[in-house]
Amino acid sequence: MAGAPHDSITRKLTRMNMLVSAAALVIACAAFMAYDLASFREGILYDLSIQAQIIGSNSTSALLFDDPQSATTTLSALKAAPNIVSAGIYTPDGRPFATYWRDRESQIPALPPIPMGRAEAHWSKDKAVVLVRSITFKGKPAGIVYIQSDLQRLNARLQRYMVIAAIVLAASLLAALLVSSIFQRSTAEPIMHLAAIANAVSSDKNYSVRANPTGSRDELAVLVEAFNEMLEQIQTRDRALRDAQNELEERVEERTNQLTAANKELEAFSYSVSHDLRAPLRGIEGFSQILLDEFGDKLDEQGKKYLHRIRAGSQRMESLIDDLLNLSRVTRGEIHTARLDISGMARSVATDLQKTQPEREVEFRIEDGLETKADPGLLRIVLENLLSNAWKFTSKRPSACIEFGKIDHNGTAAFFVSDDGAGFDPAYADRLFGPFQRLHAMADFPGTGVGLATVQRVIQRHGGHIWAESAVGSGATFYFTLAATTREEEKL
Amino acid sequence: MHRDRIAPRIRAFWRKFVLYSRLSAAFLAAVFLVPTLSAQQTKPGEYAVKATYLYNFARFVEWPVGVTAARGDSFAICVLGRDPFGRALDSTLAGEAIDGKPVVAKRISKPEDAASCRILFISPSEDTRLKDILPAIDKTGVLTVSDMPQFSRRGGMIQFVLEGNKVRFEVNLTNARDAGLTLSSELLKVAVTVRRNSEPGD
What is the per-residue burial (b if ≥16 Cβ within 10 Å, else e) of A359-387? Predict the structure, then answer.
């Protein structure tokens, strides 16, 4: 994993160096060669032109006095120039007059025409240059010189160039290789080091490592510095985050402890208050009874009426205290859940209710076979409260129907108790479960207003939820879920 | 034989050749004609060639400044004695010029008249009178040319000779120099013989 990028960046740099130097050299060599060969060829042509002029002016008399022998002698001087393959002199009307051959006698080629208005023409002819020049003597054409040179010198020069270019190319590639290996230390190595560090950081989540400074003041040094600074910042931020979290946890714990303590104190206070209120109340109750029994005949009707008021008030206060103690107990006691027959429990509560007012015509529709897991004592309090509420709020009707069952509410099982009694205004639905909250006049439906608060406390302690639906005059339905029930249902 | 122009002769022979080769399938006829044709080509008329050479000499010889200035507006090539050129000389020189002066052909009968000439061709008919002629034109800057035998040894400057059927020439450099004439080395190069009077055997 560390080897591959190592090779890659080094090789890339080296390859780039080599390619750049090779390209520059090849282009430079090609340009030099092209220029030199072109000027060399020009030089050859220039030499040929001069040779042709010399031959021309030396053969004028031979041409004019028809002496080919003399012309041939003049031409044979070309032996000194080894590049001249053949040469010839023609009469102005194009007849061959004298010829010269370097290697062997051969046919003199037909004279190509010189373009009009020019004294000289040249062209390339398979590996040779041909130059033709007309000879004029005192303004009149005397003949034509033809001269052909091979390009051996040019080719030799080209070959020499090729060899030199190859040597230079090889040498400079070697130099580029050396230079790139030196530069690699200052360029590639810091990058590789940085890559390794970055890799370590991302794989080990170790932000304490640092890249080594390069020691120079280039972009790489800036990169390394910025990278290190970034790591530093990450570390600082991490530390701050951890500190903040720790502090928060401590504070939460502290607050929880404070809250728990305050809550316990409050509960203890409310329990003892409720409990201690009972003793004086019993006194009031007991002595008002004695007063009524022993001295009832001494009191007039008005006095008796007041005494009854005192007794009703103290009885109401007692039931209030009972309810408060109940609520307190529900809140404080531990929960011991068990599997239980909720249908049977509801039926038992219903039977008890019917016994209190056997004259009422109330139909209980209780769904059979419902089971759940809950604290039996607490669940009974829930059912007692809900069913007795239903019993109470249907009391104004000649006949009533109270229902208990189970429905599916958004995927969770919910139990419900519904009646066709007085109902309540749904605008106050959120106030139903607060303690001492009452939506009906005491004269219509007596009650302490603590029952539903108790129910809600129990449901909450079971991890469930309770809510109600109703409209004035068309009955009410109370739904509740129990976390245990839900889990149980899901298993099934 | 009158040969004023070379080309018409060649053309005539060519036509003849074509005609013959077309008319007759006989090989012999062709063989017979070809040598005739080539002979005519290399020798287009001896005096026509000599006329051309006379003109060419003019281009390779330098006259003294005095002579160039004194001898009028034309460049005269003179013939002394019986004219062997016929019309060949006139037609060769027609329209030609040397150093901007028109070249003209003149026939003279007395050596004294040669003073106005640049080149003097002494006809072979004057062979016997040569001894009198040459002193008469001595030192006058006239290039003497002739085809009479031994001309270059007898005080002449350029002598035509025949080599095979080719017209060549001999030069006597001393005689030319005595007359103040400079002969180009190019001219000497194509001469058959270049004589100097001091040479042994002259």
Answer: eeebebebeeebebbbbeebbbbbbbbbb
Give yes or no for residue A346 having a pLDDT over 80.
yes
> What is the distance between the alpha carbons of residues B98 and B68, in angstroms, rounded to a whole number?
11
**Under a CB-based contact definition with an 8 Å cutoff, are residues B99 and B68 in contact?**
yes
Residue B75: Cβ-neighbour burial (10 angstroms; 0-12, 13-18, 19+): buried
**Is B190–A70 a contact, with Cβ atoms under 8 angstroms apart?**
yes
Encode pLDDT of A294-336 as tens digits. Answer: 888 888 889 889 888 888 888 888 888 888 887 777 777 778 8
Q: Is B175 helix (H, G, I), strand (E, B) or coil?
A: helix
Whole-number Å distance between alpha carbons of A436 and A301:
34
Query: Are the C-beta atoms of B30 and B21 separated by less than 8 Å?
Result: yes
Retrieve residue B19's tokens. Answer: 């005609």
Quote the tokens at residue A250.
């401590």
d(C-alpha B181, C-alpha B57), whole Å? 12
Q: Quote the CA–CA distance of A130 and A147 in Å, as a whole number.
A: 6
Closest C-alpha to B16, from B29, B2, B27? B29
Both structure tokens of A448: 């302490």
Ranges of chain B whose pLDDT falls below 50: 1, 3, 25-43, 200-202
Contacts of B49 in chain A (CB under 8 A): 66
Please give the Cα distance from A49 to A318 (Å, whole number).
Answer: 145
What does the block give as tokens for A421? Answer: 């009694």
CB nearest B59 (choices: A58, A62, A138) = A138
Q: Measured between beta carbons, which residues in chain A are less than 8 angstroms from residue B169?
A: 65
Angstrom distance (rounded) from CA A383 to CA A343: 10
Strands B101-108 and B75-80, by their bridges, are parallel
pTM of the model: 0.51
Alpha helix segments (H runs only) across B61-202: 65-70, 88-93, 130-136, 173-178, 185-189
Measured between CA atoms, the residue of chain A closest to residue B186 is A61
Residues B13-27: b if buried by 16+ CB within 10 A, e if exposed: eeeebeeeeeeeeee
A80-106 pLDDT, tens per residue?
Answer: 888 888 899 998 888 888 989 888 766
Interface mutation target, options A58, A63, A64, chain B, most CBs of B under 10 Å: A64
**How far is the CA of A468 from the CAs of A8, A70, A351, in angstroms?**
72, 142, 24
Alpha-carbon distance A391 to A351, whole Å?
Answer: 12
Which residues lie below 8 Å from residue B25, measured CB to CB, with a gap of 6+?
A: none
